[in-house]
Amino acid sequence: MTATTLPDTGTTALPQRRPRRRRSINLAVGGALFGLIAVIGLVSVFWTPFAFDDTGGGRLQPPSAEHWAGTDRLGRDLFTQLMIGARLALAVGFGSVAIAAVVGIALGLLAAAARRWVDDALTSLLDIAIAFPTLLLAMLIVAWRGASLESAILAIGLAGSAVIARLTRIAATRVLAMDYVTAARTSGTGTGGIIVRHVLRNVWPTLIVPLALQFGGAVGAEASLSYLGLGSPPPNASWGRMLEEAQSTVLVAPTAAILPGILLVAFIIGVNLLADGLRDVADPASRSIR
User: Rounded to whole angstroms, how far apart are CA atoms 107 and 162?
Assistant: First the structure.
């Protein structure tokens, strides 16, 4: 049997449909996972099945109609802790991303718009910060300021700001070399006006995906810090702290270790899939031809 050669119609739409569909699926699945856990976290602000410090449920009880996920070794309701952990993950994610965005964009714009020697100095410092392990840098900052939720957010945000600054500098330098920016300078527009009117509006599509990815990384970093005892202390029910507390009773009450791990993995996967889908929305150049 010989292969049939189809006539060349001059269109490339058909081969590009599959990537576009895959990105749509990623956006939908990521949004569903992120949205579900976000709703759980927001609901915990107003309602939880039990008080966090209620130890009247009995130690290491299995899931039941009263305690949907069972109880921990102190008799506290696990579902209540999981809800509070979701709220904590949202606070860490948004707080650290906000710090990384403010500090990183400011440093990146400064490096792109400053004189050559300032740019070289800042770029070298950013390269050193990026090469330094993020979790180790966060551990140093937390050890310096003391273990607390605010310290974890600040440490993770500052650790992630170097990557944002580096990307901002690259994108801003490219925009500043454009002809319309040169024309704006010729017409008398100052550096501040150029950054606000031209640079920022063209840089943000490049940063939205890295910032979304840093959200998931921040949640994972906080869980690691809490697992090591350097994260938010009780009564904050971090998923990482729940994993650390449940490791000694994992054979007796496996749900205390399995459920926080599932939520943590699902949340990070959801954020990563959502970021991949946002790439198509934020950057028109990456969209498939319809």
Answer: 9
What is the pLDDT at residue 280?
Answer: 67
For the residues of 179-192, what is the DSSP string, one character each? HHHHHHHHTT--HH
Beta bridge partners of 77: 71
Residue type, position 223, single letter: A
pLDDT tens, position by position, 117-171: 877 888 888 888 888 777 788 888 877 887 788 888 998 999 889 999 999 998 8
Q: Are 96 and 86 in contact (CB under 8 A)?
A: no
Q: What is the pLDDT of residues 196-209, one digit of tens each?
A: 777 888 888 788 88
Q: What share of the chain is helix, strand, coil (3-state, %, to 5)?
A: 75, 0, 25
N- to C-terminal Cα separation, the chain: 34
- Nearest CA among 267, 277, 138 for reference residue 209: 277
Q: Domains in the chain, ordered, with CATH?
A: 36-45+70-284 (1.10.3720.10)
In sequence order, which residues have a C-beta less than 8 Å from that of residue 38 and are 6 or more positions away?
86, 90
Q: What whole-number distance in Å separates Cα of residue 82 and Cα of residue 185?
A: 54
**Helix count and strand count (H, E) for the chain:** 10, 0
The pTM assigned to this predicted structure is: 0.82
